[in-house]
Amino acid sequence: MAIGDTVPSVDPVWGEGIYKCMKSARAAAMTADRCLTRTKNISAEEMGVYDDLWNEQVAPRQDRRLMMTRLLYLAPNERYDRLMQDLNKLSRDTLSDINDGSKQEIVKLLYISDLSYLWKYWRETQSGIASYFN
After folding, report:
1. Which residues contact 34 (CB under 8 A, 6 or more apart)?
2. What are the boundaries of each domain within the chain?
3. What's the superkingdom here (predicted)?
């Protein structure tokens, strides 16, 4: 069971690191309480409650956020600057949808020139290089 900076819970665009760290700590505390006082069972199956809570409450759709992080690392700084400019033009509702992992809204942030980064990302995930970030 890991919390805080030991797990990839910081959002690549919005930050939100402290909030997510606190939520992961709460999920860890709930899991520890359950395993040590209620069930008195610390098996992998019982500890799996933490994974469920983390994926449901701490970082839902984390796979999409990790993909965005990887893509940002593949792109030059100028592309990141352009992304920030585009985000500044969007409504709060749209930003919220993007933060919630809406593929429909995320795709709207892409340009034809981003295809090379997507291709590179795909090649890396196929060859296992991107597994370093998992």
Report:
1. 46, 49
2. 4-58, 62-133
3. Archaea
